[in-house]
Amino acid sequence: MAERQHQFSYEELLAHGRGELPGQLDARLPAPPMLMFDRITHIEAEGGAYGKGYVTAELDLHPGLWFFSCHFIGDPVMPGCLGLDALWQMTGFFLGWSGSHGRGRALGGEIKFTGQATIDKKLLEYRIDIKRHMRSPLPFGIATGTVKADGEVIYVAENLRVGLIPVE
């Protein structure tokens, strides 16, 4: 097996969403504005909290991001569901990166909000730790995740579940 890449730039994530990243299987990231991170800073098949792999990613926050203008007028805050979606996106990306086939679908999880991503914050840091990865009969992953805003934990997620459905 060829050596896998362990970091991905924004341009590479966009190529992944279009299905154009060399060596990519059929799972794809969403395109902007639903792509919820600017780069994957590290991805590993081993290590992490459970020894089964992890992914870290970042999103640069700035006042021009689309969600700040509408959520909420006069009280801009990133919707919590978008941070949760980033963790699901990373879990699906991990499944495809590690060799599983199919199209990613979020299947559930539990989240606790302990803070907010507001317009004054500069950086969101995401991390998922893979708890379980099944390759068959349906590729499936379970992960825990955290989201930090300027170094402060603002979301904690448990049992994030993502499956890869067959490509027809």
TrEMBL record:
Q: What is the top-level taxon of the source organism?
A: Bacteria
Which Pfam families does the record match to this protein? FabA (PF07977)
Cytoplasm as a keyword?
yes
- One Gene Ontology cellular component: cytoplasm
Classify the main location. cytoplasm
Single GO molecular function:
(3R)-hydroxyacyl-[acyl-carrier-protein] dehydratase activity
User: Where does this protein reside within or beyond the cell?
Assistant: Cytoplasm
Q: Which UniProt keywords apply?
A: Cytoplasm, Fatty acid biosynthesis, Fatty acid metabolism, Isomerase, Lipid biosynthesis, Lipid metabolism, Lyase
GO terms for biological process, alphabetical: fatty acid biosynthetic process
This protein's pathway: Lipid metabolism; fatty acid biosynthesis
Task: Indicate the family of this protein.
Answer: Belongs to the thioester dehydratase family. FabA subfamily.
- Tell me what this protein is called: 3-hydroxyacyl-[acyl-carrier-protein] dehydratase FabA
- Species of origin reads Devosia geojensis
The lineage, from the top, is: Bacteria, Pseudomonadati, Pseudomonadota, Alphaproteobacteria, Hyphomicrobiales
